[in-house]
Design brief:
single chain, 611 residues, alpha/beta, Rossmann fold, Arc Repressor Mutant, subunit A, 7-stranded parallel sheet, 6-stranded parallel sheet, globular, binds adenosine-5'-diphosphate, binds zinc ion
Length: 611
């Protein structure tokens, strides 16, 4: 069989996507590869198909123990002989799998890295390799070798052993991490310097990015969620406390939400993760402890209630939305406080000066991205050194271009308020001062007698917050963490103070609850319209049949104890509902139905489809 035969017969897809075909052939011919592809790009097939084409078993190293079961289940559904070895198996199951491994009964074996390096397992590999029966090694989530990333796994460093011990076996390392430093680290640490590198575009065209200025975050969140009724999504918060509170509050609002953070015991965490994966429409409220390698294809949104650490982190976290390629949203609320908190976190960390300098740089880049009036996708990809020529038309600044205004005078007023008060105060007091609000503190300090007192009454409080935030993001001001977030002028402020430059600021728009909800619903309509054109299959008249098929799938999933998407993807159900195949051969033409699924479910599906 050729690679294309396998793609069609086993996986049921008509054609390779992007560089998949080239990667598969390169591996098939014994070459090493580093594959950089965004989440949802289709990395798995890049090692699964060559493993089926080459003699012997493909050994897949993955740190994601919790997901191995689902990955293996999905392969078994497609008729591939797959199994896994990790600490969740009891002794009898381990022995049984080892036996299958040694009797040519496996095409793919998923292994946890700590298991790989046991004497026992290496002995088995030695025997297989002597008989020429290792098809390839796939190193999934290869960025786990990077000591700077937050997914660092010490065992990953040892993976270079594979090449030393089995030089004849081709290796493929895969990651969705986009930054250049990590890529270089992977090549060096895994000894892949001479591997061929395949880089795909990191654009995720189906994800819509928006950032809103934080005003009333709960109200804003509800407004956003109004556009995602009964859909699965992830809400990220910085602290465990906020995770717990937000999840509880969402439940009170009638939204099925579960908390997830490192402070919960393992059993609860696993239980919540399982429910998120298996049930429809669960919202996971989580710290960044949640999400690495979440394979759920139909996560429809990722919301950030707090600013993430960097644009890399943001890209990774939001990347968990829309793996299936259907419309998804990344949404974030962001405020002045975030800046102060993050600066403080960096200043007070144990890291060395060099590391702190890097982290500050990353934070600044993220702030500038939050405040940009340009296309967010263009700016995001530019950060990863990818050049996109045109605006995307699918981010907030493209859909509703922000109104700009000449902010030079406002900036001068703000700066003068800072200077006149000795660069010792935070935004709250400075805004009161500018707006001429007589507080007790103001009177005590005598600030109500300053010439800047009340010169900014033309802007409301939210307006001033926006000005301060943009001055911070633009590097004109700096929040001194040592002085409790007191704002100070940087050198770049001088031309503004002297009026020697132009300064365009975004106009602050705060939406009321009704407006937020309206925007949410409008968004949802827009998403649906987009889906209808992108996926002609999803027209309203096919909806009842789709629901019938979905109910059948839920039943199957329950009976077999696997997530619904392991049986068939939403996309495949939509196609079935639209094409209404009349017989098995028509059924096999539906993307996502290979031979094994056709044989297994064909009769049941054909019986459900009216002809
Ligand atoms: P990644 O590991 O890169 O995040 P996956 O390997 O999980 O991505 O693939 C993402 C989705 O795309 C899956 O639902 C997969 O079945 C689908 N897919 C991958 N390759 C193809 C293809 N050539 N044609 C159609 N669908 C594909
Ligand atoms: Zn855009």
């Amino acid at each position: 069989m050729t690679a294309l035969d396998i793609l069609r017969k086993v996986f049921g897809y008509p054609a390779f996507r992007g560089p998949q075909a080239e990667i598969v052939n390169h591996l098939k011919d014994g070459g090493d590869a580093l594959v950089l592809m965004p989440t949802g790009g289709g990395k798995s097939l890049c090692y699964q198909i060559p493993a089926l084409l080459r003699p012997g078993v493909g050994v897949v190293v993955s740190p994601l123990i919790a997901l191995m079961q689902d990955q293996v289940d999905a392969l078994c559904q497609a008729g591939v002989r797959a199994a896994f070895l990790n600490s969740t198996l009891d002794y009898a199951a381990v022995v049984a799998t080892e036996k299958r491994l040694m009797t040519d009964d496996l095409d793919l074996l998923y292994v946890a890295p700590e298991r790989l390096f046991t004497e026992r397992f290496l002995n088995l590999l030695d025997r297989l390799s002597a008989a020429g029966k290792i098809a390839l090694f796939a190193i999934d989530e290869a960025h786990c070798v990077s000591q700077w990333g937050h997914d660092f796994r010490p065992e990953y460093i040892q993976l270079s052993i594979l090449h030393e011990r089995y030089p004849a076996v081709p290796r493929i390392a895969l990651t969705a991490t986009a930054d250049a430093l990590t890529r270089r680290e992977i090549l060096v640490r895994l000894g892949l310097e001479s591997a061929r590198i395949f880089i795909s575009s990191f654009d995720r065209p189906n994800i819509r990015y928006s950032v809103v200025e934080r005003d009333n975050p709960r109200r804003q969140l509800l407004g956003f969620l109004a556009g995602h009724e009964n859909e699965a999504g992830i809400i990220y918060c910085l602290s465990r406390k906020k995770v717990d509170e937000t999840a509880a509050w969402l439940n009170e609002q009638g939204i099925a939400a579960l908390p997830y953070h490192a402070g919960l015991d393992t059993v609860t965490r696993m239980h919540h993760q399982q429910r998120f994966l298996r049930e429809d429409g669960i919202v996971m409220v989580a710290t960044i402890a949640f999400g690495m390698g979440i394979d759920k294809p139909d996560v429809r949104f990722v919301a950030h209630l707090d600013l993430p650490k960097s644009l890399e982190a943001y890209y990774q976290e939001t990347g968990r939305a829309g793996r299936d390629g259907e419309p998804a949203e990344a949404w974030m609320t962001y405020g002045l406080n975030d800046v102060v908190i993050h600066r403080q976190r960096i200043d007070e960390s144990e890291a060395g000066e060099e590391q702190k300098r890097i982290e500050r740089g990353k934070l600044d880049a993220l702030l500038a991205w939050c405040e940009t009036a340009e296309c967010r996708r263009v700016r995001l990809l530019a950060y990863f050194a990818e050049n996109m020529e045109e605006r995307c038309g699918n981010c907030d600044t493209c859909l509703e271009p922000p109104e700009m205004w000449d902010g030079i005078v406002a900036a001068q007023k703000a700066m003068s308020a800072i200077l006149r008060t000795g660069q010792r105060f935070g935004a709250g007091h400075l805004i009161d001062l500018l707006r001429g609000k007589v507080t007790e503190r103001m009177a005590q300090l005598g600030h109500d007698a300053l010439p800047t007192f009340g010169v900014g009454a033309d802007l409301d409080e939210a307006g001033w917050r926006s000005v301060f935030r943009q001055l911070l993001a633009g590097g004109l001001l700096h929040a001194d963490a040592q002085a409790y977030g007191a704002l100070k002028l940087t050198d770049s402020a001088r031309p503004v103070l002297k009026g020697e430059t132009v300064l365009h600021l975004r106009r602050q728009v705060i939406k009321s609850r009704e407006k937020s909800a309206l925007a949410g619903r409008r968004n949802k309509q827009r998403n649906e319209a987009r889906r209808n054109t992108a996926f002609a299959a999803q027209s309203p008249e096919n909806e009842p049949l789709f629901e019938t098929l979905r109910a059948w799938r839920a039943e199957q999933a329950r009976a077999q104890g696997v997530p619904a998407y392991v049986i068939l993807h939403d996309k495949t159900l939509h196609e079935l509902a639209a094409r209404k195949p009349e017989n098995l051969s028509e059924l096999l033409n539906v993307p996502g139905i290979g031979q094994a699924k056709g044989e297994r479910y064909g009769a049941a599906l054909l019986a459900l489809i009216p002809h």
